[in-house]
């Protein structure tokens, strides 16, 4: 069986499991899912400016990712940003400056085998994901967003999954409730990738 290099197994409880790695609470609550807001792009630019001013050349790349980066996609009004630094584990090089700029560290964990730091920012409400070069998750984020920008059917499917997750049991994790839809969208994106072969990995076989 051929597998795309960015494929990861279906893990419906991943978000709930990682809560044990939380080191602080966010400054601003995520809010409810809402229709796409054209202002989200400008809010990202505001966050980008704060990052550039605070850590300068340490910011190897700053990317708007997640649902707020995809026109036509509903989202919680939180800007997701991927920040690549020379070494995410060298916190002394960047964390104090981010803290001084108003960011707060809330997770210190590992995702897809790569060390990861998640910080939040109050205004605009932001999730800042910090990675080292070559990390897998930022590459997955690009694939996911690019696919949704060009596939209206999957945008509708994902919007429906978000609505269902929002209406779910309040004790459940929103991200975990939509995990199946996310996995299936990745499967279609990987199968369509002309640069890497990928045989179907349906959830029934990998759960």
Structure at a glance:
The chain is an alpha+beta fold and 207 residues long. It contains 8 helices and 5 strands; from the N terminus they run ααββαβββααααα.
The CATH superfamily turns out to be Beta Polymerase, domain 2
Q: Please tell me how large the radius of gyration is.
A: 17 Å
Mean pLDDT: 95
Could you give a short account of the major beta sheet? 5 strands, mixed
Tell me the quaternary state.
Answer: single chain
> What is the chain-wise order of helices and strands?
HHEEHEEEHHHHH
**CATH second-level architecture:** 2-Layer Sandwich
| Terminal-residue CA separation | 17 Å
Annotation, overall tally of beta strands: 5
Structural class: alpha+beta
Low-confidence segments, ≥5 residues, pLDDT <50? none
Strand order, sheet with most strands = 1-2-5-4-3
The CATH class name reads: Alpha Beta
Provide a count of the helices.
8
Strand proportion, as a percent range, falls in: 15-25%
Number of domains: 1
**Considering DSSP H and I runs of 4 or more, what fraction of the residues is helical?**
25-40%
Inertia-based shape: globular
For this structure, the CATH topology is Beta Polymerase, domain 2
What does the model show?
With 207 residues, this protein is of the alpha+beta class. It has a single domain (15-206), classed as Beta Polymerase, domain 2, CATH 3.30.460.10. It has eight helices and five strands, in the order ααββαβββααααα. The protein has a five-stranded mixed β-sheet, sandwiched between helices. α2 (39-55) crosses α3 (95-101) and α4 (136-150) crosses α7 (179-191). The mean pLDDT is 95.
């Amino acid at each position: 069986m051929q597998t795309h290099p960015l494929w990861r197994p279906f893990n419906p409880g991943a978000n709930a499991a990682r809560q044990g790695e939380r080191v602080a609470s966010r400054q601003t609550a995520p809010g409810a899912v809402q229709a796409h807001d054209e202002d989200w792009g400008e809010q990202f630019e505001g966050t980008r400016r704060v990052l550039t001013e605070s850590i300068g050349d340490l910011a190897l790349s700053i990317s708007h990712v997640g649902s707020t980066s995809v026109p036509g996609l509903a989202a919680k009004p939180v800007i997701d940003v991927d920040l690549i630094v020379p070494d995410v584990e060298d916190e002394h090089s960047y964390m104090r400056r981010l803290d001084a700029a108003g960011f707060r560290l809330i997770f210190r964990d590992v995702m897809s085998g790569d060390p990861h730091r998640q910080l939040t920012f109050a205004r605009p409400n932001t999730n800042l994901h910090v990675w080292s070069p070559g990390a897998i998750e930022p590459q997955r984020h690009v694939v996911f967003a690019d696919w949704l920008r060009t596939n209206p059917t999957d945008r509708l499917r994902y919007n429906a999954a978000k609505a269902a997750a929002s209406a779910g049991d309040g004790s459940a994790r929103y991200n975990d409730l939509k995990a199946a839809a996310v996995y299936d969208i990745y499967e279609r994106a990987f199968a369509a990738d002309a640069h890497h072969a990928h045989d179907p990995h349906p959830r029934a076989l990998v759960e």
